[in-house]
Amino acid sequence: MDLSVVVAFIVGVLQGIFEWLPISSEGNITIYLRVIENLPATVAVQLSLFLHAGTALSAVLYYRGVIADVLRDVPDWRPTDPFARDTAELSFFAVATVVSGVVAIGSYVALSELVTGLGGGVFIAAIGVLLVATGLFQRLARDEGGTRTDPDLLDAVLVGLFQGFAVLPGVSRSGGTTSALLLRGHDGPSSFRLSFVLSIPAALGGALLGVVDDGLPALAPTTALVALVTSAVVGYLTIGALMRIVERVSFWLVCVVLGVLAVLGSTVFLV
User: Fold this and answer.
1) Which letter, b or e, does each residue of 111-146 get, where b requires 16 or more Cβ atoms within 10 Å of its Cβ?
2) pLDDT at 219 over 70
3) Which of 208, 128, 117, 205 is nearest to 169 (CA)?
4) I need a surface site. Which of 18, 20, 249, 258 has the fewest CB within 10 A?
């Protein structure tokens, strides 16, 4: 696949920014690669998943203190009461990761069938519909939230389900998981923190899923390195500021608008 270093840099920047916004980084980057760079849909999806490895590194560095605290809870974990206050977050991350992994594999298999079976215009329209649905779900949860800070088993299962479905382009991982936690009565700060720490295994798993299925994206080593390093550096530099912005801006509406534009734009491929 002949992808220039400039395009690799662009998609790296987009991933480093979009990953922290509830607008589906995978969906929007897939649309960019498919429409602007004219890549096949299968390649665009694979590359958009591959880029998550870079932002996973960003999240590891940014949340290194939180990760260290969670790992320190491991010796105190007890199977008789896994969601005890001292180890609730450890159990939450473990259960949600397992659930999301199982759901993501099923979703990816369905996605692979859809990508090969749908025409270019229908595929873009499908991404647009999922973006609209994601935005409306975020609108539903916008005014919710409570005072909870400790997750339980039901939180882990629900968040794992939403995170697993986020392998589908157009479904925002951060938007879906954060909204689910808000609807369950968690406060805003803890919802964002739980969601973004959980993004680390999800991002690595998503990147690995594409590699296992189709092999490494057919990029020159320099191009692949540029894309990954750019997404990691931009992701680390923007995560703090963008998370503060997300708490104040109605990104559900941005998501809906992007979805509508994708649906309308898909007609170009259909005529």
Assistant:
1) bbeebeeeebbebbbbbbebbbbbbebbbebeeebe
2) no
3) 128
4) 249
Which among 195, 184, 192 has a CA at the least distance from the CA of 146? Answer: 184
Q: Quick check: 211 and 50 in contact, CB under 8 A?
A: yes
Q: What angle do CA 51, 54, 56 make, to 5 degrees?
A: 110
232-251: burial string, b at 16+ Cβ within 10 Å, e else:
bbbbbebbeebbeebeeeeb
Residue with tokens 């734009």: 265
Reported pTM: 0.88
DSSP string, 174-212: HHHHHHHHHHTTB-HHHHHHHHHHHHHHHHHHHHHHHHH
Say whether pLDDT at 216 is over 70: no
Please check whether residue 128 is in contact with residue 170, taking contact to mean a CB–CB distance below 8 angstroms: yes
Whole-number Å distance between alpha carbons of 85 and 185: 17
Task: Give the rounded percent of residues in the chain with a pLDDT score beyond 90.
Answer: 49
| Residue bearing tokens 């609108």 | 139
Would you say the C-alpha torsion 238, 5, 11, 60 has a positive or negative sign?
Answer: negative
Residue 228, C-beta contacts closer than 8 angstroms, at least 6 positions apart:
12, 50, 51, 53, 54
Find tokens 């990954």 and name the residue: 228
Contact 195, 178 (CB under 8 A): yes
Model pLDDT for residues 185-203, shown as the tens digit of each residue = 998 888 988 998 998 988 8
Give the number of other Cβ atoms within 10 Å of residue 66's Cβ: 15
Alpha helices in 37-119 (DSSP H): 41-50, 52-62, 64-72, 88-117
